[in-house]
Amino acid sequence: MDDIILKKLQSDIGYHFNEVGLLKLALTHRSMGSQHNERLEFLGDSILSYSVSNKLYKNFSQLDEGDMSRVRASLVNGKNLAKLGKNFEIGNNLIMGPGELKSGGYKRESILADAVEAIIGAIYLDSDILTVNDVILNWLKHDFEKIDQNNVMKDPKTQLQELLQSKKMKLPNYEVVEIIGKAHNQKFKVRCLVKDLSLDVFATGTSRRKAEQASALKILEILQYDIKN
Amino acid sequence: MDDIILKKLQSDIGYHFNEVGLLKLALTHRSMGSQHNERLEFLGDSILSYSVSNKLYKNFSQLDEGDMSRVRASLVNGKNLAKLGKNFEIGNNLIMGPGELKSGGYKRESILADAVEAIIGAIYLDSDILTVNDVILNWLKHDFEKIDQNNVMKDPKTQLQELLQSKKMKLPNYEVVEIIGKAHNQKFKVRCLVKDLSLDVFATGTSRRKAEQASALKILEILQYDIKN
């Protein structure tokens, strides 16, 4: 990778590395062998989550905990991160093995999203938590601007219900199939069945309500439904 | 709540608040009405994850990304957090509605774990990210000491296999039931069937391998199997 490309990338992401080797590592896919970006991705993922959560807590006081969870999921999911990766033209800069290259891995959304998280980890290691936080919030500036606090997001069960109704399908069926554990430490296992789509998932939660919401969210994920915010 | 109890609690958790109101909010269950600890819990959860991930990245260089995920899950899960809550005797200090009190909510593991996360959020708001990081790492000191880098943890499929073998049960059956999405953005839906336990779960992932591991993890969670570290 030549220096001009790396300079452009750093200018696009809005951070210039002291140690460019960290950026190169963040761009290195596991198909390259022993040194790759997966540990950096793990680190970056948790920093991204902290950064977004902190912003939501401090600047979106009208959102309750459930709302914040849903907004955060919509900002840090693979699709949104891959979009960032495409804006930064990361695909052209990925370092990967010939097999992965040939099969078009540099276009795969999950690989782009992973590299974006790894870059976050790399910026953090090259600077500090406050600096990387500023970089992340700048990337997501427009996403945060679009969050409408008054039009509070709907929970997964409501979203699933509305989605099915819009397609003239029957409502999902929720059923508690198992209650696990003792009185003060119970887990509820719920089955959610959407007959018209032949979908059938299970989810657990510490209350019946939470398990039902989790099962509805799974269905939405399977349908690759854009969670509204 | 009298001041002596709050002083003891602050001494137990190893942090003294400038604004004790934040600690009181962290101890307030949603059954009390409009002002409760769920937003703080959301914030604290992400800080805890960052703190543990950062420590694992920097001090446990032999653990790969999968190992770090599993160790982190074992440290930040409800059970481990509830244990901390019990050590701090949080149960006696929870502020909750009469119905929840009567039904023994102050003993419920999930409520204790949530309050611990909320306390993390409260410490952060009362200080800064570096201070709360030190407090968290001090709480988890013994957990980190117990992590054996050489005896690298086993992945969920391996753990499930060994668990079933130890009970003389048949091995689980994995089957790809659906491949969703286009070529460069596929999701694999896998079914994991454990006949001898009448357990049958579905999980999705961006690769067949990831979906299988996720389905094995679900089975382990349903069995409330202590994930090894």
From TrEMBL, chains A, B:
Entry keyword set: Cytoplasm, Endonuclease, Hydrolase, Magnesium, Metal-binding, mRNA processing, Nuclease, RNA-binding, rRNA processing, rRNA-binding, tRNA processing
GO terms classed as biological process: mRNA processing; rRNA processing; tRNA processing
Cofactor: Mg(2+)
Residues of the DRBM domain: 155-225
Enzyme nomenclature, EC number: 3.1.26.3
Reaction(s) catalysed by this chain's protein: Endonucleolytic cleavage to 5'-phosphomonoester
Active site: 45, 117
Location of the RNase III domain: 6-128
Enzyme class: hydrolase
Compartments where found: Cytoplasm
Any one GO CC term of the record: cytoplasm
InterPro entries, A to Z: dsRBD_dom (IPR014720), RNase_III (IPR011907), RNase_III_dom (IPR000999), RNase_III_sf (IPR036389)
Record: residues binding Mg(2+): 41, 114, 117
Domain of life assignment: Bacteria
GO molecular function list: identical protein binding; metal ion binding; ribonuclease III activity; rRNA binding
Main localization of the protein described in the UniProt heading: cytoplasm
The family this protein is said to belong to: Belongs to the ribonuclease III family.
Complex and partners: Homodimer.
Function field: Digests double-stranded RNA. Involved in the processing of primary rRNA transcript to yield the immediate precursors to the large and small rRNAs (23S and 16S). Processes some mRNAs, and tRNAs when they are encoded in the rRNA operon. Processes pre-crRNA and tracrRNA of type II CRISPR loci if present in the organism.
PANTHER family: DICER-RELATED, ENDORIBONUCLEASE DICER
Full protein name: Ribonuclease 3
Organism field: Paraphotobacterium marinum
Higher taxonomy: Bacteria, Pseudomonadati, Pseudomonadota, Gammaproteobacteria, Vibrionales
